[in-house]
Amino acid sequence: LSPGAKMGCFTFIKVMMILFNLAIFLSGGTLLGVGIWVKVDGESFLNIFGALSSSILQVVNVAYLLIVIGAILLVIGFLGCYGAQKESKCLLMMFFSVVLIIFIAEVAAAVVALVFTGLAETLLTGLVTPLLKEKYGVDKTFTEIWNVTMTEVHCCGLNNYTDFNNSYFYETHGSYPRQCCGMQEPCNSTLAAETAVKGCFEQILEEIRTNARVAGSVAAGIAALEIAAMAVSMYLYCRLDEK
Predict the structure, then answer these.
(1) Is residue 52 exposed (0-12), middle (13-18) or buried (19+ Cβ within 10 Å)?
(2) What are the Cα distances from residue 222, in Å, to 42, 71, 203, 217, 241?
(3) Which residues, including other chains, have CB under 8 Å from residue 178's CB and lie 6 or more apart?
(4) Which residues are listed as membrane-spanning (predicted)?
(5) CA angle 109, 111, 116 (to 5 degrees)
């Protein structure tokens, strides 16, 4: 290519890099703002998004999650946008490094998820099942979380209805949660065995497998964007030596 064509290509890629990372920066700012809002004024958030959001907030601390993700996106967007605008090799390299670290972490997480699914089930069984026996029907928040989860996912316990054997709930009510019998009451051992409602862990895994193509496509798209972002930042970094 002629010097003019090369310069035009460099300018185009620089502008696209700025716009792309500006969008990331604004998205990060939005998530950060929402996270702070949920943390400071969670009651308004619950009023707007309904009762289900209460259980979601209790399962995962959404405020901190949004703040962390928003802060990461802000840093990435700033480094990419400002680095391209100022043609700073230092900022471009920092952008490349941060995206590379995130990419490696995502790949590692995917490998761990594939390899250690069985181990995760064993660990969860050892940790969660005792809690179900002790807290379900005793702790209002804990009970509500599991009721929403079992109703929405159409599951029972972590593994199946036997997780509630010798539990406080069974000893008190003489039955299993109605979700273990397809919402039929009273839910005794015979009906629960006949209904054979799957455990929540297995049901969630099945949902993931069912939607694996969509999840895989989304993951592949994110990975492609990250690789493209790294390639563009490295291209700009190398071209700066020629200017």
Answers:
(1) exposed
(2) 30, 18, 26, 9, 29
(3) 184, 185, 187
(4) 12-38, 58-79, 91-116, 214-238
(5) 95
Instruction: Report DSSP letters for 96-146, one per residue.
Output: HHHHHHHHHHHHHHHHHHHHSHHHHHHHHHHHHHHHHHHHTTTSHHHHHHH
Residues 106-146 pLDDT 10s: 888 777 767 766 666 676 677 778 888 888 988 888 888 88
CA distance 187 to 176: 5
Low-confidence ranges of the chain (pLDDT < 50): 1, 50-56, 58-60
Q: Any idea how long the chain is?
A: 243
CA-nearest of 203, 197, 204 to 164 is 197
Residue 8, token pair as written in the block: 């035009």
Nearest to 24 by CA among 79, 88, 67: 79
> Kindly report the CA angle at 21 between 15 and 23, in degrees rounded to 5?
105
Contact 39, 8 (CB under 8 A): no
pLDDT at 51: 46
Q: Is residue 13 within 8 Å of 236, Cβ to Cβ?
A: yes
